[in-house]
Every structure is written in structure tokens, then in C-alpha cells.
Amino acid sequence: MGWFSSSPTPAQPAAVTQPSTPNNLASNVKPAAGGEKVKPCCVCKDEKSQRDECMLFSRADDPQEDCKSLVGKYKDCMAGYGFKI
């Protein structure tokens, strides 16, 4: 029939919009004063992965010394959430 056919067009599914989220979902989550505390596994993920990668793949004789700055960043991040390492 052509472009102006009288047959109904199939219903299009509604577009699903998802909220934009950062790569590290818990990067900005800080425990509220007197509020629910976050779990240590859910924070400082970037710092932890950088620390772990350095420790695992370091070619230095002393990986702990080689990765000291990354370990420090991870500890500082965790301390910001109230965790002592």
C-alpha cells in the first residue's frame, strides 16, 4: 500500500532509561553521622585494585616497598570511611 497505509503500526516498547552511574559505585558513599555504616568490601575499589595489581605484578625484590605509595592511598581511603587497617 505504501507509506500511508491504514494498518496500525506495532507498538514500540517504551525506552528504558537507566540512571548514569560512575565506574566506582561506592566512591562517594560516606557513612552518615549516626547512619548505616558501609561495608569495607564496597568502598575504595579503585585504590584496592591498583594496590593488588602492583603487589601481584611487581618485579621488585621487595614488592611491599615498591607499592608502598599505593598501599598508603588505600589505607587513607579506608580511614576516610572509618576503617583501620
Key descriptive features of the protein:
single chain, 85 residues, mainly alpha, elongated, Cys_alpha_HP_mot_SF, chaperone, metal-binding, Cytochrome c oxidase copper chaperone
Biggest beta sheet attributes: none
What is the mean pLDDT? 78
How many DSSP H or I helices? 3
Q: Roughly how many Å is the radius of gyration?
A: 24 Å
What can you tell me about this protein's structure?
- This protein is mainly alpha-helical and about 80 residues long.
- The chain contains three helices and no strands.
- α1 runs antiparallel to α3 (about 70-80).
- The model has no long low-confidence stretch (mean pLDDT about 80).
Summarize the structure.
Its main location: mitochondrion. This protein is mainly alpha-helical and 85 residues long.
Layout of strands and helices, then pairs:
Elements: H1 45-57, H2 63-66, H3 68-80
Pfam families: COX17
Subcellular location: Mitochondrion intermembrane space
Main location: mitochondrion
